[in-house]
Write the structure tokens for this entry.
Amino acid sequence: SQQAIFSAKLLAGEMPQNIQDVFTANGLSLFPFSLSEVRSHCSCPDKANPCKHIGAVYYVLGDRFEEDPFVLFQLRGRSKEDILSALRQMRSAAGEAAEAETSPIPQPPPRPSYPLQIDQFWQYNEPLESSLVVIAPQGSETVLDVLGSIPPINEAENRAKGQDTQVTMQYLNGVYQNVSQQAVLSAMKVEAS
């Protein structure tokens, strides 16, 4: 079963986390066991090996391994296509053998087709999952706070009629709070009291 997981991940283009264990169990190594197994040479005057230039190459190689782990196989002489085609051949051979041994799997009955009801397309009658419900914190700024007070069209005329922008803002704030509460209650499928 572990081999099937490795094969599936490799065929999906992913490198399994513990692929090195498979190589080690077979007396092989995907990665070098020690730095002495890696041959590197730089033309810089630094006598240390690896020098800072070779160290930079190792660093870039490490990044490249993260982007495409199959580069490891390329460095060992096998391309990604070689690996994947060999895996596909092994899986198809194993699949044919298993198919010969097993009986056919019964097909599930077809699903009933429900008539499409366009008028109910946007309706969702199930309660929302609790993780999807977001309740806005109390005391946060509302749209009306951000917009500020409403400028009067004609201040003299408004005062003559006894209307004030402050009264209008209070009314709109009440409407805004009421609508917000109704939206939250509706989202939570709770009846207003």
User: Anything to note?
Assistant: The first helix runs from residue 2 to 11.
